[in-house]
Write a structure and sequence with these properties.
Radius of gyration: 17 Å
CATH class: Alpha Beta
Shape: globular
CATH architecture: 3-Layer(aba) Sandwich
CATH topology: Rossmann fold
Order of helices and strands: HEEHHEHEHEHHHHEHEHH
Structural class: alpha/beta
Strand order of the largest sheet: 1-3-2-4-5-6-7
């Protein structure tokens, strides 16, 4: 019934078209790997993956793409954008979402038959993430409860010692403005085609704590792959290569029978 209602809403109240920023890096040599579509979290854009992960994925033979959510778009519009971009790729894609982008991916899986999915530091439980954010950064979080900007701190996003100028540049680019729907706790759809799904995170994340990570992984039939000593923004940490290598290694084990 939920799927029918969603389709009816899409038909009667379609998501309006919008320009989508998609950044892509392709391998130097053509290999038999599926494209990977990265979906950034709240306040982040494709740039967050273009810093390190896009190039690294391409260097390992994966066509790598990252989409920036439409400005001001609600959750339904962001899911629509991800599905549309994934459907436009020449082959069935792997979806990788970070933070709230993982929530977008989890909902997109109900409409798009992904080859596989990876949820990185997933904000699937908005109430738990809000509580953790309030505890670790109350003054930066309170304005967001009244429609203002969520001012994330370096301590929330990074656990390693990044150069101060690098941290400042990242924080300047992040424009996080949460929407009430992110804490609705509405049920997630069942993924189309039951793609293999990996949950990745850190026990030292100050936004997505260990218990929500465990719950997210259990929902998809596994345990989280953990990277101690890292913060919420794993793709921007000084040790960024470790999680993306682990993700690509996992994909190599999950997908060989159909691509080789």
């Amino acid at each position: 019934m939920k799927s029918d209602l969603l389709r009816f809403q899409d038909w009667t109240d379609p998501v309006p078209p919008a320009d989508r920023e998609v950044v892509a890096l392709l391998p130097d040599e053509t290999e038999d790997q599926p494209p990977v579509l990265f979906v950034p979290g709240l306040g982040h854009g494709a740039w967050a993956f273009a810093e390190h992960w896009l190039g690294h994925a391409a260097s390992r033979g994966f066509p790598a793409h990252a989409v920036t959510p439409r400005a001001g778009g609600d959750l339904r519009a962001q899911v629509h954008d991800v599905v549309q971009v994934a459907a436009s790729l020449p082959r069935q894609a792997v979806l990788v979402g970070h933070g709230v982008g993982a929530l977008v991916v989890a909902r997109a899986l109900g409409r798009y038959p992904a080859r596989a999915a990876v949820l990185v530091a997933p904000v699937l439980d908005g109430w738990a993430a809000l509580g953790a954010t309030l505890r670790s950064n109350p003054f930066g979080t309170l304005p967001a409860l009244f429609g203002g900007r969520l001012r994330l701190s370096a301590r929330q996003l990074f656990a390693s010692e990044l150069p101060a100028e690098e941290v400042a540049a990242y924080l300047e680019r992040i424009d996080a403005r949460p929407r009430a729907e992110l804490i609705s706790r509405s049920p997630l759809p069942e993924p189309v085609g039951a793609p293999p799904t990996l949950v990745v995170g850190s026990p030292d994340d100050r936004i997505v704590r260990r218990a929500p990570l465990d719950r997210a992984a259990a929902r998809y039939g596994g345990a989280p792959l953990l990277f101690p000593g890292m913060g919420h923004d794993l793709m921007l940490e000084s040790g960024w290569a470790e999680p993306i290598d682990a993700i690509l290694d996992w994909l190599g084990k999950q997908l060989p029978s159909r691509d080789h």
